[in-house]
Amino acid sequence: MHAVVDQALTSSPLDVASVVAYVVAFGAVAFATFRRPSAGIALLICFVPFAYYHDVGHTTVTFSKVALLAVFAGLAARRCDPRVLRGPAAAAFLICGLLVTGATALSILQALHRGPALRETLKSLQYVALFATVLVAARADPQERLLRLAFAGTLALVCALALAQEIVGAPSGLWFLGHPIPRIAGPLEGPNQLAGFLGIALAVVAAFALARGPSALEIGALALGGAALILTISRAGVLASLVGLATVVAAAPAARRRPAFTALGSGVLAGAAFLAAYGFALTHSVLGFDLLARFSTLAEVSDPGAVGKRSQLWHAAFVLWRRHPWLGIGAGNFEFELGLAGYPGLRTHANSLYLQALVEGGIPLLLATLALVYASIARFVRAARQDPLIAGALGASVGLALHQIFDLLAFYPKVGELWWIALALGAARADAPPERAP
């Protein structure tokens, strides 16, 4: 067994094989969307965690970007009605998303490094386009069977790949009594990002299981997700995800809670038991069980390496923000200017969505970000009992809002894209006219 395996960052330029793969993916998703828009959304969900990055100049091509264009093409061929974007929930999210994009673009004027600021602006615009495309597709085809299958299947596969890293080696870890402890990440960029992804996916899968009765795949996905969530050893991620799941449960019928509770609880207990056993096996002492105590403490890691401690990063964010309080230092510039705040050896983000928005985009970006977070919760609260997609979007948004106090997650497309898809599906159901009884 290998606890932690160092990951080498390599560039993958676009080649013939990747072009063929992207073309095939585009054709398959466009055709599926033309036949049934919900199939296009399902494929888009499946592609999110499996990006297949390839570089083109200063940007990257991914399966999810190709799939987004393909879904748009399929909807255009079907002549789907874009006027559904005028609905109250849809319009609210589009306005908030465009405000975030505008505030991010405004920060380019102040940025020392304009390339990263432009990249973040385009990423924000991509999220808005993703939201609009998925919402139009969901209103054109409200069938949910393929969506249930896509969320549960993708969650199960991501968790299986992540749990395998306990054997083959994880990309991240922490020191415990002189021993490296793996922190699984699966196909995500790191354990905190995996915890953010799981918080969204678990909320949606749990909402379906509670509202419609769980399938065997959903039971397995919830159990694997509970175990994987614990083994990320992400304290904020575990707490925030559980709060999000509690929000979903509060909107669910009481009679259907037991199967989902049993599956998720079994997974959480299995993950905790494995973690305790792992600590005992390494230390050959009952002190190894103290590894679980990490979830009950706010103490920082003593040697975090080049990513730094939150206390350092949050202090640096405040120092840099005071230099440019109105427009910030420029989106994507925080990691490049840490030296100006007294931390030349660090290069990472601010470990908080809200601080990152404040330091990089100043007051405008912080206010736009807070408006988006507020809308992602307030728009779904009253309607959460009506539909599992609304309840799932609410639970995902509540968990993510809490988690991003301590980690920046929307920065990573594999988390941000899944969240915007969940928002679009929830908004589509919230804006849909009520079904008339025969």
Number of strands: 4
Oligomer kind: single chain
* Low-confidence segments: none
The chain-level structural class is mainly alpha
Q: What can be said about the biggest beta sheet? A: 2 strands, antiparallel
Helix-strand string: HHEEHHHHEEHHHHHHHH
What is the typical, i.e. mean, pLDDT?
92
Q: Kindly, what is the distance between the CA atoms of the first and last residues, rounded to a whole number of angstroms? A: 61 Å
Placed side by side, the strands forming the largest sheet appear as 1-2
Instruction: Bin the strand percentage.
Output: under 5%
Helix content: 55-70%
Helix segment tally? 14
Morphology: globular
Number of domains: 1
- Compute the CA-based radius of gyration: 21 Å
What's the structural blueprint in terms of helices and strands?
Layout: H1 16-35, H2 37-47, E1 54-56, E2 59-61, H3 63-78, H4 88-106, H5 114-140, H6 145-168, E3 172-176, E4 179-183, H7 191-212, H8 216-231, H9 235-250, H10 257-283, H11 310-323, H12 353-381, H13 388-403, H14 413-431
Antiparallel strand pairs: 1-2, 3-4
Helix pairs in contact: 1-2, 1-3, 2-3, 2-5, 2-6, 3-5, 4-5, 4-12, 4-14, 5-14, 6-7, 6-8, 7-8, 7-9, 7-13, 7-14, 8-10, 9-13, 11-12, 12-13, 13-14
